[in-house]
Amino acid sequence: MNQPSPLNLDLQICRSLYSAANALIRAYRPLLEPLDLTYPQYLVMMALWEHDAVSVKTICDRTRLETGTVTPLLKRLEGKDLILRERSQEDERQRVIRLTRQGRDLKSRAERVPMEMACMELLTPKQGLELQRLSEALYRNAVARTDDKGTA
Amino acid sequence: MNQPSPLNLDLQICRSLYSAANALIRAYRPLLEPLDLTYPQYLVMMALWEHDAVSVKTICDRTRLETGTVTPLLKRLEGKDLILRERSQEDERQRVIRLTRQGRDLKSRAERVPMEMACMELLTPKQGLELQRLSEALYRNAVARTDDKGTA
DNA sequence: TAAAATATTATTGTGTGCAATTATATCGTG
DNA sequence: CACGATATAATTGCACACAATAATATTTTA
Hints:
Two copies of one chain form a homodimer.
Chain A: H1 13-32, H2 39-50, H3 56-63, H4 67-79, E1 83-87, E2 95-99, H5 101-110, H6 112-119, H7 125-146
Antiparallel strand pairs in A: 1-2
Chain A binds a DNA duplex through helix 1, helix 2 and helix 4.
């Protein structure tokens, strides 16, 4: 029997996951374009719609993005008048990231995005839940290996 | 009953998938560093180890990366003396991407990477296969929606 | 209390990912 | 055969993703 090499591309889970994630982000693009948001920006906005006036660190935790990514991203959102970046009075190292009125108002338009994504039927609801469960397990284990960064 | 919002971050499959993919790439990093390769570069090298002397398009298809990503990446691999980028004689639009001796020799060192990744036990083998199956389904469906780019 | 350790955000530098576009070559059609 | 359509790789411009580092503030320790 011919044993496939461990380096065989079709055996690489990471390629599957990575390309699927990128493809999924691409699928979001036309839906987010009318909102003038990229996918990571959409993530950040969702975090703020859930809980406004939070620190950069909180946003990083909720979105699972790193500060090196989030800091310039927040600057761009501020440039679009969707958020304000203020200094915290309790702790001057911190920023308080606050939605503007436009930022808050955008939520109602954004509510269509998950619906429209579901309409694409990229996966069945069951498959989606299973994919999420496995992805979460992987994320948790990978993060646990590097440090104790237990995040939501 | 309080119905969670469709914009609830914890319900976003895409966040799970995206963060898991990024975390997995990060897990590869220390293993690929001694080889002086990034993960996408590793993908390209794997494609060439499987089948040497191919076009850029073939590499894009096998790695599922776009030419805008692959072209500069190949230039950097050439800069590391791992590949040669030649013009095809049959069709002058095309490049033939060829492994150098160093490029070929690197394969044996790279064969440890999948083993070492498995040792991390980020998922069970069963979970891994299931994750791959679902990711593949998602990738296929997402790609099919944009065009008929049926790829391996 | 002073100094060391840690936390927060920001920056720097590099490599990606991708939409739109370009230059050139090849293919298809009338 | 000439021309229009398409393909290939490359480029441009923008937004990420992240490791390493830096500036400043806060917490911890002795």
